[in-house]
Amino acid sequence: MTDITQNADIEMNENHLIAERREKLAKIRDEKQVAFPNDFRKDTVSTELHKACEGLDRDALKEKGMHVKMAGRMMAKRLFGKGGFIQLRDKAGDIQLFVNTKLIGEEAFEEFKTWDLGDIVAVEGEVSRSDKGELTVRAQTLRLLTKSLRPLPDKFHGLTDVEARYRQRYLDLIMNPETRETFRKRNLILRTLRNFFDKEGFEEVETPMMHPIPGGANAKPFVTHHNALDMEFYLRIAPELYLKRLIVGGMEKVFEVNRNFRNEGVSTRHNPEFTMVEWYWAYADYQDMMNFTDELMKEIALAVNEGENAQIHYQGYDIDFGKPAERMTVQESIIRYTDDAKEFDLNTREGVAAYADKHDIHYDKNDCWGKILMEIFDEKVEEQLLLPTFITGYPLAVSPLARQNDENPLITDRFEYFIGGREVGNGYSELNDAEDQHARFMAQVADKDAGDDEAMHYDKDFVTALEYGMPPTAGEGIGVDRLVMIFTDSESIRDVLLFPHMRVK
Predict the structure, then answer these.
(1) How many other C-beta atoms are found inside a 10 Å radius of the C-beta of residue 417?
(2) Are residues 14 and 85 in the same domain?
(3) Which tens digit of pLDDT belongs to each residue from 433-455?
(4) Does residue 35 belong to any structural domain of this protein?
(5) Residues 198, 147: one domain?
(6) What is the pLDDT of residues 224-238, one digit of tens each?
(7) 259 and 388 housed in the same domain
């Protein structure tokens, strides 16, 4: 049988099942005053019930006399004579229901027999245990709340149907408890982030998502048009320049959990829109930020592990966030992770160009020392940074918003934070010299005129803000999606986005 024939047969069978379910719904509409009731209120969920009944046997539960109201989706049904069992799935997990004619009556039982997997039902009953010791709700009343018109997949495995998981996330959430757990942890991580910043005295703020001038990162923006103002706007690529305006205004500690948009490639690591947490701290430097990041990651790890420890397992190796991340410069990392880097002077353009030529690493003939150095780093080092690592000493040429190092004018007080062979965060001591910022913006404009569509625009108002004076400040941004990937051991960014962007079929 060909795939086309098989798919046609599957579709025909599904259409038949849908037709049967529509007939059942039509009958419900005829017989019931309300086909989709909304008067049921539950008082517990499966995890809470399992926890409350832990260690209690059937006799103990009978003595306790627990009466519950629950609702969820019917995932399995077993009938035997005048009785049966239901596997009920709610937002938290599964619970078994026992149903028989003695408890709910023959009429209700006959109605129950016609229900289908996927239907959403409500139950009221006493908590007990089955003969096999499984926690069970003995249904005293059972109601159909929502008729499911489409049959659930017989087998809905994420590993064998990855695209369907992403395109029909609602099915993925219904069928795969591990997916629901991933997004529970995502919520936990975001809550932990906010609590940590609040504890450290940061104020949460909101900045515009549509910018008249794109800025804050080297990236290609999405462009839109505002009709009333008759002008182009750019979807936010980063909130940085707005957040630093707040520092100028006297808000000394600010953070924002924000959505950013970059008109770039789609991969297991990139989505056109993504979530970041970005924060700025007056009277702090990039060293303070690295220390802060170590503490933040430890806090998240403890939250994910329910306080037991700060260790996680990610893609085949163990990470202990209870220990500070390693720190090294760009040049030190190249020397550590390559065999022959010591043979070249990585502090000169001639040296890095010679190394790049030997290893066939592409760079433009007009590229300066810093840009060639970073091409080497990206090619040879980044994917090898598996354990938490801060890379410092970033060249001035690739850091237009970072403070110049006091001892070496070719580098900045900047770091990037790597885990699992990918950049997770970026931070630095902020440039607060208005004249220097003006000069760097002009250099970015020259790069844009030369064909670099990711180079920054000149932001006159931001330079004006700096002219009023910004205190010494450090800032950092961490990609929340990549963070969730790490703490849920997810291979692809699409696994941690409820609705990842995909090409329309």
Answers:
(1) 24
(2) yes
(3) 999 999 988 988 888 788 777 67
(4) yes
(5) no
(6) 999 999 999 999 999
(7) yes
| Segment 230-249 mean pLDDT | 94
Tokens of 41: 């209120």
User: By the 8 A CB rule, do 67 and 125 touch?
Assistant: yes
Both tokens assigned to 455:
């180079």
At 69, is the secondary structure helix, strand, or coil? Answer: strand
Whether residues 269 and 393 fall in one domain: yes
Q: For residue 156, what are its two tokens? A: 């809905």
Decide if 367 is inside a domain: no
Containing structural domain, residue 416: 175-338+381-496
**Residue 333 to residues 413, 427, 468: CA-CA distances in angstroms?**
17, 18, 39
Report the number of distinct structural domains present in the chain.
2
- Render pLDDT for 140-172 as a digit per residue (tens, 0 to 9): 999 999 999 999 987 544 445 788 889 999 999
Checking if the pLDDT of 1 tops 60, the result is no
DSSP letters along 256-302, please?
EEEEEE-----SSS--SEEEEEEEEEET--HHHHHHHHHHHHHHHHH
- Of residues 457 and 408, which shows the higher confidence score? 408
Q: Tell me whether residue 57 is in a domain.
A: yes
Q: Residue 353 falls within a domain, yes or no?
A: no
Angle between helices 369-380 and 330-337 (to 10 degrees): 40
